[in-house]
Write a structure and sequence with these properties.
This protein is of the alpha+beta class. The chain has helices spanning 2-35, 49-123, 128-208, 215-229, 248-268, 284-296, 310-323, 369-376, 380-389, 395-403, 411-418, 426-432, 441-451, 466-475, and strands at residues 274-279, 324-342, 348-366, 479-481, 491-494, 504-512, 515-523, 527-534, 540-544. It has three domains: 2-222, Helix Hairpins (Orthogonal Bundle); 243-389, no CATH class; 405-548, Alpha-Beta Complex (endopeptidase fold (from Nostoc punctiforme)). It is built from 14 helices and nine strands. The strands form two sheets. A six-stranded antiparallel β-sheet has the order 4-9-5-6-7-8. The two termini are 51 Å apart.
């Protein structure tokens, strides 16, 4: 039972840390704003604020460590005491069984006495006294028989009880052994973890604190940030540059580009007439959750995941490609193609020709989180970490890490960005209701809107044609021409030919420094990609402005 409680406590601690991340984000921002105001001050004993904060942090963490180890040892000790009491009770039960067995020997003696009494009665003359003696003896024999039967039943029950007691004793002994091992392992891991945080925190404080009276006020914040950053939840801080010159967003873009380059290389080095692509890349939060747990809990080389380095970038790339596979094949087909020509007199002539074409098939597949759990042999604790990281309550935090989006208005952008890397558009046009591939840019926008509940809410229409989509926004007065600087989540319509008719659509990711960043389905290579355009570009037809 102690083991079960310990697991429940661990799960509660995980959830507590998870919730602490949200609050810590606000506290962290306030701390960053406050550090510029902190001044170098020494206390009356000559101890600097840096040393004071660091030593206080060390004391706090050592106390946490000792407390945690004490609790772990207490759990093991209580389990041992409980098991000892169980064994004592079972030994007592077995002793009672032995006493019952001895009483059985006495019953056997009574049976012999009964037989002897019967033999004596047969030799006694048939007198009144003899008859009375016989009756008395018969009663004694009957009573003895009942006693024998009852005692035999008690002995059988006691033997069964002793047998079960022996099995239970063995089981509790094994549980006690495992509990002791788990307690020692937990204490050792906790001590190691806390020592690492102490060292990291000292460095953190020395580097960032300017010292002074604010040290005591922010020490709790630093401790909390240190705890979270040092755990798997540190991944939620990886969206900021920690001094290495790169953020998680930079690395994700680099891997996305590498992924797209591999697709382009296949198309470039294979001759084909018709291209058919299918499949999709894994959602990035799934990849990063697996990365965070794998790297942070690695027994041989555990590392914090709050910062990004060249080494950890390579680890993330390795995990990404272990989760993905790109297959390609070609097939030559001879088909009948109908062509139309003008005979020069205003008549259209249809001609059937046998055409041999080479088809290039490219398929992208990815492993699920469950498949990666099996591949990496994650234990129960690691699986719990994964579940907490992927909890839907953390979607906003993932958006901040991956895309720098921290508002509800960016929800459709988050969904769209999660689909970058899809090829062929199968989920979107089939969701819309088409049985085979169509030009799917509008289907993609509609699918993203539906994922956010915007279609049912009447915020964005369900449309498969760009003209109908643009008209919907115009009719409601939610339209702007292509010269504006759009906000995230606006629906961007394009006119490639300049004929005043929109023929492509996407979603605005953001607009910065005169550049419009978009996410578009059915883009280059029949895939979902991020693109950029200059504000006011001639190819931008206009913007639909949803009332989010």
């Amino acid at each position: 039972m102690k083991n079960i409680k310990t697991k429940d406590s661990s799960k509660k601690m995980i959830r507590t840390l998870d919730k602490a991340v949200v609050g810590t984000q606000k506290i962290k921002n306030e701390f960053i704003n406050s550090k510029d105001r902190i001044r170098q001050v020494s206390d009356s004993n000559g101890e600097s604020a840096q040393e004071y904060a660091a030593n206080n942090a060390e004391y706090t963490f050592e106390s946490v460590s000792k407390s945690g180890i004490s609790k772990a040892n207490k759990i093991g000790r209580n389990s041992f005491i409980e098991t000892k009491n169980k064994l004592t009770n079972h030994i007592k039960t077995r002793q009672e069984a032995k006493e019952q067995f001895k009483s059985k020997q006495g019953i056997k003696s009574l049976i012999k006495q009964k037989d002897a009494t019967k033999a004596t009665i047969r030799d006694v003359p048939n007198t009144a006294g003899a008859s009375q003696s016989i009756k008395t003896t018969d009663k004694t024999i009957k009573t003895s028989s009942k006693t024998i039967k009852t005692s035999s039943q008690n002995i059988a029950a006691t033997k069964n009880s002793a047998k079960h007691a022996s099995k239970s004793a063995t089981m509790f002994k094994e549980r006690a052994k495992k509990a002791a091992q788990s307690s020692k392992k937990a204490a050792k891991a906790l001590a190691s973890y806390v020592r690492k945080i102490i060292l990291a925190l000292k460095s953190f404080i020395t580097a960032l604190l300017a010292g002074g009276w604010l040290a005591t006020m922010i020490i709790v914040v630093i401790v909390l940030i240190g705890l979270v950053c040092g755990s798997v939840f540190g991944i939620f801080f990886s969206g900021e540059d920690s001094g290495t010159g790169m953020t998680m967003q930079d690395v994700v873009r680099e891997i996305n580009t590498e992924y797209e380059d591999k697709l382009d290389d296949i198309k470039e080095f294979v001759e084909y007439d018709v291209l058919e692509m299918s499949g999709s890349r894994a959602v990035w939060k799934d990849v990063l959750a697996v990365y965070s747990v794998k790297v942070n809990t690695d027994e041989s080389n555990p590392q914090e995941v709050a910062t990004m380095t060249e080494e950890k970038k390579e680890l993330l790339k390795d995990i990404f490609w272990e989760m993905h596979e790109i297959d390609s094949s070609t097939e030559t087909k001879t088909e009948t193609v109908v062509s139309e020509t003008d005979d020069g007199e205003g008549n259209i002539i249809e001609t059937e020709n046998e055409v041999t074409q080479t088809y290039l098939y490219i398929t992208v597949s990815h492993k699920t989180v469950d498949e990666m759990i099996f591949q990496y042999n994650f234990d129960v604790t690691q699986q719990q970490y994964l579940a907490e990281l992927l909890n839907e309550e953390n979607n906003m935090l993932w958006s901040q890490v991956l895309y720098g989006i921290g508002t509800a208005d960016g929800e459709i952008v988050t969904v769209a960005l999660s689909q970058v890397g899809n090829v062929g558009g199968q989920p979107y046009w089939s969701w819309y209701g088409f049985s085979s591939r169509v030009e799917w840019c509008a289907c993609f926008v509609s699918w993203c809107a539906n994922e956010c509940g915007y279609i049912d809410a009447g915020v964005i229409p369900k449309f498969a044609g760009c003209v109908l989509g643009s008209q919907w926004f115009m009719e409601r007065g939610q339209w702007a021409d292509g010269s504006i600087e759009p906000t995230a989540g606006a629906i961007i319509f394009f006119d490639w030919e300049g004929d005043g008719i929109t023929d492509h659509v996407g979603i605005v990711e953001k607009c910065e420094n005169g550049t419009v960043y978009t996410v578009e389905g059915n883009s280059i290579g029949d895939s979902c990609r991020q693109r950029t355009y200059s504000v006011g570009s001639s190819v931008i037809y206009g913007y639909g402005l949803p009332a989010y």
